[in-house]
Structure to design on (205 residues):
């Protein structure tokens, strides 16, 4: 039930942010600001975090709110998939992160794979565009679209980065503990299906 309330809070936040962006009426602005405070209060109650911490994380943007974009690099070698161990939770994920301004999706994948695994890669194709809410990730204050891009190693060597502690290749039947915030076991299985069938259609939603 608390996860349903988190979704309600995110919707209220989006409405309030749009109102603060486009309204020219002082009284409406005050109402939208109050709506934003309500969304922060709901998030605080259902996460246990302090309201000011939530406000900085959850209500820190301006302009019309749109989903955030996360890009994950999918790299295969000898029928195994490249994973990196996250320092933050000690679990494993596909290399990736938020897409940076000024980078295309492919460039973002190349950048993230290099920073987190040490490998130089080139992007080949988009495998999936998934809405984080529709999959068994841990809850998030953000609405996120995740783009999975298959990449090919062209150089470099495996070495962890500032946010990772280990780099490894794993086969589909011996996956390590995965970071549920970043990737799910089902998503990894889907990526292996592209290894079996390179002509499979792009997954979405």
């Amino acid at each position: 039930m608390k996860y349903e309330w988190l979704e309600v809070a995110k919707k209220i936040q989006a409405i309030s942010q749009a109102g603060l962006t486009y309204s020219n009426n002082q009284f409406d602005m005050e109402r939208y600001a109050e709506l934003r405070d309500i969304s922060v209060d709901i998030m605080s109650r259902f996460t246990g975090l302090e309201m000011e911490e939530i406000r900085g994380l959850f209500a820190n943007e301006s302009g019309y709110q749109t989903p955030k974009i996360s890009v994950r690099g999918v790299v295969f070698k000898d029928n195994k998939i490249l994973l990196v161990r996250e320092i933050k939770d000690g679990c494993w994920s596909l290399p990736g992160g938020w897409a940076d301004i000024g980078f295309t999706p492919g460039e973002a994948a190349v950048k993230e794979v290099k920073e987190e695994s040490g490998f130089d890669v080139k992007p080949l194709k988009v495998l999936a565009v998934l809405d984080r809410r529709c999959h068994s990730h841990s809850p998030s204050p953000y609405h996120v679209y995740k783009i999975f891009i298959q990449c090919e190693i062209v150089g470099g060597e495996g070495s962890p980065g500032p946010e990772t502690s280990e780099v490894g290749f794993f086969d589909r039947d011996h996956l390590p503990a995965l970071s549920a915030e970043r990737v799910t076991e089902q998503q990894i299985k889907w990526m292996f299906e592209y290894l079996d069938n390179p002509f499979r259609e792009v997954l979405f939603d």
About this structure: The chain has two domains: 2-58, 68-204.
